[in-house]
Amino acid sequence: MNVSIVGATGYGGVELIRFLNNHPHLKIKSLHTSSQSGRSLYEENAHLMHMNDKLEEIDPEAIAKKSDIVFLATPSGVSSQLISEFSDLNIKVIDLSGDLRLQTPGEYEHWYKKTAAPHHIIEKAVYGLAEWNAEEIRQSTIIANPGCYPTAALLGLAPLFTEGWATATDVIIDAKSGVSGAGKSLSSVTHYSEMNENFKIYKVNQHQHIPEIEQQLGRWSSDLQPITFNTHLVPMTRGIMATMYIKVNRQTSTAELRDLYETVYEGHPFVRVQPLDRFPSTKQVYGSNFCDIGVAYDERTGKVTIVSVIDNLVKGAAGQAIQNANILMGLEETAGLWSSPLYP
Ligand SMILES: NC(=O)C1=CN([C@@H]2O[C@H](COP(=O)(O)OP(=O)(O)OC[C@H]3O[C@@H](n4cnc5c(N)ncnc54)[C@H](OP(=O)(O)O)[C@@H]3O)[C@@H](O)[C@H]2O)C=CC1
Ligand SMILES: CC(=O)N[C@@H](CCC(=O)OP(=O)(O)O)C(=O)O
């Protein structure tokens, strides 16, 4: 099966290339750029010098003729325009941006401050939270790949809501990310002298992933109230840690809680529930498609603490996109993704 990548020169794009180069069934057919067509991939990305691929312009009809799937690793606002051109063609689309994730009209424009994709396309798009929406993904042609923070948060919260241990009435998510989450372009927020020896909170109560997390929580819990979700930048390249605090509706213990998570995620090889009283760190998932989760019950407050870590570029972007492609094409979910994290 052939695949093409639009936005091949960006962080999400090169991470797709890294995994697809080792995929047993999906073959990279073409790589596309809006600004560098005709150049070799390695001119922009020296680490890919062993590949001779040339970057091509974005011609949706030509891409649909040669590939079964196109990955859009393009910025929000760009994907929504490209998707209109691909949606009438015989090709499946996996969009890594936030453009197709929000189903309620007006929400996207409110949070992203950009024009939304056409509504008939948004309606066709399935939210690609791979561990939870596989059935829908299998029947779809357009996948809205989840955001990096929502992936970490939702995988961590899901068992409590789907198993009726909590209602989404008082959800607090405190999240931290490495700077590659902001993409490859330079910015005054992420450049070295701003981030080195620094730790900052940003987009306080304004983050565009708030409605995305609420949308999925609303599918699991009928009592959804607005959530508290805040994000921090950490001076590291990759990784997200989401720490969450939820009141549960029963007296329990950490051991019982951990059993719940273990049972829910049985058969989902990319989610690794940590041993009792152990909490994950971002380095243990670095460069991999794993989401590692640790849980604890606080008897004093009746609240649960959940710690969920992912690599933002893998499980939070390219890895989950390939996992979704595997589901979509009826392949083994782990194909091309079953590699150990980089350590140390
Ligand atoms: N970084 C992360 O951790 C995550 C990113 N995402 C999302 O994935 C998408 C890609 O992110 P990321 O790779 O980090 O971003 P980058 O900024 O690193 O890369 C963006 C890519 O888009 C291309 N591009 C820019 N403008 C246009 C345009 N007008 N038309 C077509 N292509 C364009 C750029 O290349 P060129 O100029 O060569 O065309 C570049 O390859 C974004 O929507 C982002 O929000 C989602 C989850 C996590
Ligand atoms: C560290 C950092 O800046 N991260 C980005 C995540 C970008 C992303 O995934 O945004 P989409 O919803 O457009 O896909 C942010 O907080 O905006």
TrEMBL record:
InterPro entries reported for this sequence: AGPR, AGPR_AS, AGPR_dimerisation_dom, AGPR_type-1, NAD(P)-bd_dom_sf, Semialdehyde_DH_NAD-bd
Function comment: Catalyzes the NADPH-dependent reduction of N-acetyl-5-glutamyl phosphate to yield N-acetyl-L-glutamate 5-semialdehyde.
HAMAP family attached to this UniProt entry: ArgC_type1 (MF_00150)
Gene that this polypeptide is encoded by: argC
Family listed: Belongs to the NAGSA dehydrogenase family. Type 1 subfamily.
Protein's organism: Peribacillus butanolivorans
Record domain Semialdehyde dehydrogenase NAD-binding: where: 2-140
Protein name: N-acetyl-gamma-glutamyl-phosphate reductase
Major enzyme class: oxidoreductase
Keywords, ordered alphabetically: Amino-acid biosynthesis, Arginine biosynthesis, Cytoplasm, NADP, Oxidoreductase
